[in-house]
Amino acid sequence: MIYMMTYLYRKRAAPSAKKVLSVAEEDVDGDSNLNEDEPDGSKRKSGLTCGAQLKKLLISCFPATKKKKTTTSTIAPLNSTSTTYYKADFELQRVDAKDESKARNYNLKISSWNVSGVRAWLKKDGLTFLKYEEPDIFCMQEIKCTIDQLPEELERIPGYHPYWLCKPGGYAGVAIYSKIMPINVEYGIDNDEFDSNGRVITAEYEKFFLMNVYVPNSGRKLVNLEARMKWEKLFQAFVQKHDDRKPIIICGDMNVSHTEIDLANPKTNTRNAGFTKEEREKMTELLALGYIDTFRHFYPERKGAYTFWTYMGGARARNVGWRLDYFLVSQRFLKKVVDNCIRSQCMGSDHCPITLFLKL
């Protein structure tokens, strides 16, 4: 954090009766040595002029209160919640030097966004994102909203088939809006402990399974780390069961920054949720089963690419963030992937959306 120090200079004006009190205040601050005691106990002769004696008299009669020093406020602004949308920001920018035409050619677009409460996201103009991105499939996590609480605007978004998983009392919740009607939709991972909050919704399409996931957070002081490790094991088995049938696309908030490049302050977060050794190792295990982190595939050395920023300390404005949101694909499906874009310009949540471009 940068602190700006402001120095105030008081101009010395010509003597004036109207300025007597301000001069007196300056003397009280300790700049004057009027009538100091001598070492032998006698008083030093002041040799004061009539004007100086008048000032001294005024000080004794009207003692000034020492002013407190004022400091510049260091309270950081909150993250912005409004987005200025430009169509050009949603065009495919990546150019493949070997085959530019292939890099820009796609026919399916999937977007994912942890909305951190869909009703709050809606009030922050979240639906405008769909008008500009125009994804074929839109996945949301942490919706915090059951069907009976659903705002009217979200009951049916024109052109999309909606699928929701958020149990009563659940604070998590996931949803898929799809222009293409899935062959089948599965809710949860067949485990009551985790499915009660709504963690995974899986849509089957002709050529792939799409798993929209909100991985449990290990919590402050890692109080949920043990449960998180149990979840990871169950989820890996669930993914592998489906991968035996069709390629997998996993999207959503994985609640982990896999490597040091994936967060702004790795050294100070090694025992914080989202960057523990245990969580990172589980992501490594999942990838080792035959899955690719598509963003790092295309941009292995890109720094400052984050998808989450805390609301505290103006973190988003300073880009002090974490990459917690992913598109993972089965390795054999990688050739179908054209690009993975982080839409960091989109506000409305403490996360930003990410988009995967495919050529099927």
Q: Helix count?
A: 10
CATH class: Alpha Beta
What gyration radius follows from the Cα positions, in whole Å? 31 Å
The end-to-end distance, rounded to whole angstroms, is 47 Å
- Please tell me the CATH architecture by its name: 4-Layer Sandwich
Count of domain modules: 1
Shape estimate: globular
Beta-strand proportion: 15-25%
For the largest beta-sheet, the strand count, sense and barrel status come to: 6 strands, mixed
Unreliable segments of 5+ consecutive residues = 1-50, 65-77
Strand order of the largest sheet: 3-4-2-1-12-11
The CATH topology label is Deoxyribonuclease I, Chain A
Average of pLDDT: 82
Q: Bin the helical content.
A: 10-25%
What would you give as the CATH superfamily?
Endonuclease/exonuclease/phosphatase
Structural class, by secondary structure, is alpha+beta
Give the strand tally.
12
SSE series: HHHEHHEHEEEHEEHEHEHEEE
Protein name: DNA-(apurinic or apyrimidinic site) endonuclease
Biased composition (Acidic residues): 28-39
Site (Important for catalytic activity): 325
Domain Endonuclease/exonuclease/phosphatase: 112-351
